[in-house]
UniProtKB/TrEMBL annotation:
Species assigned in the record: Aurantiacibacter sediminis
Positions of the GP-PDE domain: 1-301
Pfam family for this entry, one: GDPD
Keywords, in A-Z order: Glycerol metabolism, Hydrolase, Signal
Highest classification ranks of the organism: Bacteria, Pseudomonadati, Pseudomonadota, Alphaproteobacteria, Sphingomonadales
Protein name in UniProt: glycerophosphodiester phosphodiesterase
Catalytic activity: a sn-glycero-3-phosphodiester + H2O = an alcohol + sn-glycerol 3-phosphate + H(+)
Family the UniProt entry places it in: Belongs to the glycerophosphoryl diester phosphodiesterase family.
Stored InterPro entries: GP_PDE_dom (IPR030395), PLC-like_Pdiesterase_TIM-brl (IPR017946)
Assigned EC number: 3.1.4.46
Length: 336
């Protein structure tokens, strides 16, 4: 099972920072996952969202107070500060912050230490760590809100492929997956590159670029047939691969029969993200028994898992048997 560091080792460092990616590599992640958005001057940078008030100190910077605005992104109205309204040099003056301070208060010790990294810097980090460790380290970029950004004049798919090809990432053997929740950008990418593509799907809703289709439609046999015509895998919320009893829903088997890889998201240790039967204590920030959830995903034979604590998953992958923290074999699975 591939270990994909979800936004880096985001359980231990503020997400989408070079420190989080570097720690994830140290912890044994096979791939690191940068979510990509553009700057005003067309540079791809790593943020989970283009609205950055929750992950940087931009709200405390009086020189950028006039950049606060309201936009509609994929049908959702958001107010804040957006990467596409800043040049790279301006963004580089900001410092990253922990996105979930109530759940991960220990990570706030690193607030203010790190800049927003560019894709180029992430690639250079990976190459340096590969040379140091002698092992291959993959990257798993997601293009965020590509349909919205296309309307704003940024073709994220083309920008990403150009940069990856220039860095000698090409072909199906390259240690890269490109992912998106939208469909049309992946179809376009299928004609632009041989790098492997992954269709992301949530347990609810549907792709922002095709409101006539739901993700529920896309996990049906005909939906999977369609995905297999342009993508190499699916990245799906855990409730799509595990039922309420913690057993396989059959999606993994159905997808793999069509030659699709199945990568599940997101495995996290904190009680706030675990089903009640895997929680320990009443504190949402306390660590529950995520190891049990890993075992269920392994039993369902998923090909990879996105994890906020890749070190925990690496340890579990190297062990046999069940964790000791719980004896139940089939606890219900959270929809989160």
């Amino acid at each position: 099972m591939l270990i994909i560091a979800h936004r880096g080792a985001s359980g231990d460092r503020p997400e989408h920072t070079l420190a989080a990616y570097d720690l994830a590599i140290t912890q044994g992640a096979d791939y690191i996952e940068p979510d990509l958005v553009p700057t005003m001057d067309g540079v791809l940078v790593a943020r989970h969202e283009n609205e950055i008030s929750g992950t940087t100190d931009v709200a405390d910077r009086p020189e950028f107070a006039d950049r606060r605005t309201t936009k509609v992104i994929d049908g959702e109205e958001l107010t804040g500060w957006f990467t596409e309204d800043f040049t790279l040099d301006e963004l580089r003056t900001l410092r990253a912050r922990e996105r979930l301070p109530d759940i991960r208060p220990q990570n706030t010790a690193y607030d203010g230490l790190y800049q927003i990294p560019t894709l180029d810097e992430i690639i250079r980090l990976v190459r340096a760590r590969e040379a140091e460790s002698g092992r291959t380290i993959g990257i798993y970029p997601e293009i965020k809100h590509p349909t919205y950004f296309m309307a704003e004049g940024f073709d994220l798919a083309a920008m990403l492929v150009e940069q990856l090809h220039a860095a000698d990432y090409a072909g199906m053997d390259a240690p890269v997956f490109i992912q998106s929740f939208d469909v049309e950008p992946l179809r376009r990418l299928d004609g632009m590159t041989e790098i492997r593509l992954v269709q992301l799907m949530s347990a609810e809703g549907g792709p922002a670029d095709d409101l006539s289709v739901s993700y529920a439609d896309m996990v049906t046999p005909s939906g999977l047939d369609d995905i297999a015509s342009y993508a190499n895998g699916i990245g799906v919320a855990i409730p799509l691969v595990l039922n309420a009893e913690g057993a396989s829903t059959g999606l993994t088997e159905a997808a793999q029969e069509r030659g699709l890889l199945v990568h599940a998201w997101t495995l996290r240790r904190e009680n706030a993200f675990l089903p009640p039967s895997l929680q320990r204590g009443d504190n949402p920030a306390s660590h529950g028994c995520a190891e049990m959830l890993f075992n269920m995903l392994a039993a369902a034979r998923v090909d990879g898992v996105f994890a906020d604590q890749p070190g925990m998953v690496a340890e579990r992958r190297n062990l046999a048997g069940l964790p000791r923290c719980f004896t139940q074999l089939t606890p219900p699975v959270s929809a989160r």
